[in-house]
Target: Galactokinase
Amino acid sequence: MSVPQWLPAWTRAEGVERVRALFATTFHDDSETGPVDGTADGVWSAPGRVNIIGEHTDYNEGLCLPTALPHRTYVALEKRDDDVVRIASAQTDEPWTARLTDIHAGGTVEGWGAYVAGVAWALREAGYPVGGFDAVVDSCVPFGASLSSSAAIECAFAVALSDVFGLGLTGDDTGRTVLVDAARRAENDIAGAPTGGLDQSASMLCAEDQALLLDFRAGLAPADFAQHVPFDLATAGLNLLVIDSRAPHQLVDGQYADRRAACDTAAGYLGVQSLREIGLADLDAALTRLTEVDVEDSLRRRVRHVVTETARTAELAELVRGGLGADGVPDEAAAARAGALMNASHASLRDDYEVTVPETDLAVDASLAAGAIGARMTGGGFGGSTIALVRADQVEPVAEAVAAAFADAGFTAPAFLAAPPSAAAGRDA
Model:
């Protein structure tokens, strides 16, 4: 029997202790650029995210339904009196240093520090008085698992910079959407990953025991853009099992950008600002129009995925809002429909959007064969993770079945995460 490998989240106290200790050993009074005493101004953290449904819809002004993971990235930071950024990570051997005045969109910012310095750059571009800082990072968000490890870094630094430079942007969703935009710009313009804002929004705006319904139509007020939806799975006798397939996940290798460009091209052919303007009732006519202009069939399939995925997300959000069960017992009809929507989402991502890989397909198939109510790829795809909606007493059997299936296929052993909906980015100490 294959034994599942579980990746537990740190407690908040453990995360704080880790980065405080790392800061003390990294920054001390023999610094070449000025004395520091090894004590940070504070500790902040931000979660990774898991998307229940709504994939590749954010950059099409569609709907998404994420929750925050209990797995978080922790930052200890001290502001400086100049524009120098010095950062170190427990996950890398080499520290990273730059000057904020040397960072600009379209420039060459190499290394993982682009995600950090990019947030400071974006806030400065928006007119906020952000200067240099010394900081360290440690994280239990799995890297490369399509669980938004990069957004967790960006958002942890965003709340830290808001606090230490007195920007006052963390107190409500209006301010936090400013930080979301800064984190997104860091990823798009400095790190070079063309993401649509889902990951940063989830990390900055989610809440415990809540899913977050995000509506990416242009120009919406924060209250209409992000709506909290109760998502207490334990009360429904259910769990959300996250499976890291260990198939490498990258958003800067061109595939993600190709999908986004295809959607923009299709919208142009259809004469709409975004594919959100195409509803289910309009889908057949839109596909016929694309046939008439003789586009490749793949373009039609991309449109079909986006339109149907937005409709699935709206329906699943309403199911979640109504509750999937009570007193530890699932509502069988509601849970079955939720599972069916998740399954349809995965099929669409596999066949129409073509972003799954053999490992994620196997994780979904093995989960369902072992009794999961529903399963799907989560995140941008081309590797990464899947999720499975399972009854509370079926978590271990489903994990064991998936681990065995990977062993039989000769794949690298997957890892498993428990994913109760958790808190957004904020200050820890």
Observations:
- The chain has two domains: 5-231+423-427, 238-418.
- The two ends are 43 Å apart (CA to CA).
